[in-house]
Amino acid sequence: MLEKLIEHLIEEHQDYLKKIKNFQEQLEKNFSEELVQDILKFLKEDIEEHAEKEENELVNEILKINPDYDEEAIIFGHNTIREAVQDLEDTYYEFKKGKAKKEDIIKYANKAFTIVRDHFLEEENFLFPDIRRLEKEWL
Fold first, then answer.
1. Is the pLDDT of residue 139 over 70?
2. Which residues, other chains included, contact 13 with Cβ-Cβ below 8 Å and sequence gap of 6+?
3. Strand, coil or helix: 11
4. What mean pLDDT do residues 79-83 have?
């Protein structure tokens, strides 16, 4: 079950990375409030749902094998993403009030995208391989 879940999470990562690339291209070419709203929706819904899946389903599967597992590394990474999304959302509201520029939104959107991308790489290159290795030791 754990391996299947990890593979599913990696597939989601790949799908989300494609969406992020598209959003970044659109930000540079066709900036609009509607685009920013779509980006916020993607980050606050799709990425958040993915994070919750990792925090709940993945951690629960790990805890079945190792009740002493410390899930704080997973949660810390997700909280970093959440903070970056909040920064983007705050900047968007300032933009709507005329207190922030388009460039500010692009900067914070790219920051959030970079954090998501780096987090996925960290999971795929370190966390998931560690879980797979430790699963063999735990069982």
1. no
2. 120, 123, 124
3. helix
4. 98
